[in-house]
């Protein structure tokens, strides 16, 4: 799969011969390469809004100084660019926080139906603005999962935001137990939007991977949403499944191990 990289050590030995040894550094180099690429991407992503803002500042100081119309238009664009940078920085911080938390198992017990209902409530205005409707189909009998509320809310929001951003007019959000195997809660977010061609599916959760960078940026995406989702799901010992038919829509399913036991308060009351 990965390229093998060897570090070659050549050392003279006391009897006059030379000792050659090989050290496999593929793993280290690979990690270093990924890190360098990530930093370069961040630089690139931050530079474009900054360049735009610097350009408008120049214009506002010069040609457009006494033109109130141009001034308000340019300030509007600058505000948008600043908001884009702010989203990017916010997502970078979330990603680093999520990665930092990955070794600690989540401590709380979380009712997924509440999380989903809350996330949808928060996003209804965004959906309405985009002309999308959201249908909820939540099985209230799904037991809670071991999890961190804020992180799982983040997962739900990112998936629903994507469903809206990538053209879903009817978005379905489901919560059900898996019908076979270990007890597993399944959250599904289904849309009837643009869909994703199969060759992109394996790379979708990579940082800054976008199917159509222009469209994604225009929709306000940072390219980090699914990377964040992937890390949170893996911290919760879950799985993320992505299915899509281009032109018909996509379904993102998050499977999380469910606690067999009903929560304490439900037992008592
Ligand atoms: P972005 O901020 O660009 O939305 P994400 O990590 O959330 O970044 O998603 C990565 C890419 O996956 C998107 O740019 C888009 O091409 C694709 N994608 C994600 N969700 C959907 C969806 N529901 N329908 C179609 N494409 C999607």
TrEMBL record:
E.C. number(s) listed in UniProt: 2.7.13.3
Gene Ontology cellular-component terms listed: plasma membrane
Transmembrane segments: none
Domain spans labelled Histidine kinase: 41-260
GO terms, molecular function: phosphoprotein phosphatase activity; phosphorelay sensor kinase activity
Group of enzyme by EC: transferase
Keyword Membrane appears in the UniProt entry: yes
Keyword vocabulary terms for this entry: Kinase, Membrane, Phosphoprotein, Transferase, Two-component regulatory system
Reaction(s) the record says it catalyses: ATP + protein L-histidine = ADP + protein N-phospho-L-histidine
GO BP terms in the entry: cellular response to phosphate starvation
Name used for this protein in its record: histidine kinase
Organism expressing this protein natively: Profundibacterium mesophilum KAUST100406-0324
Lineage summary: Bacteria, Pseudomonadati, Pseudomonadota, Alphaproteobacteria, Rhodobacterales
Gene behind the chain: phoR
Covered range of the whole protein: 69 to 337 of 337
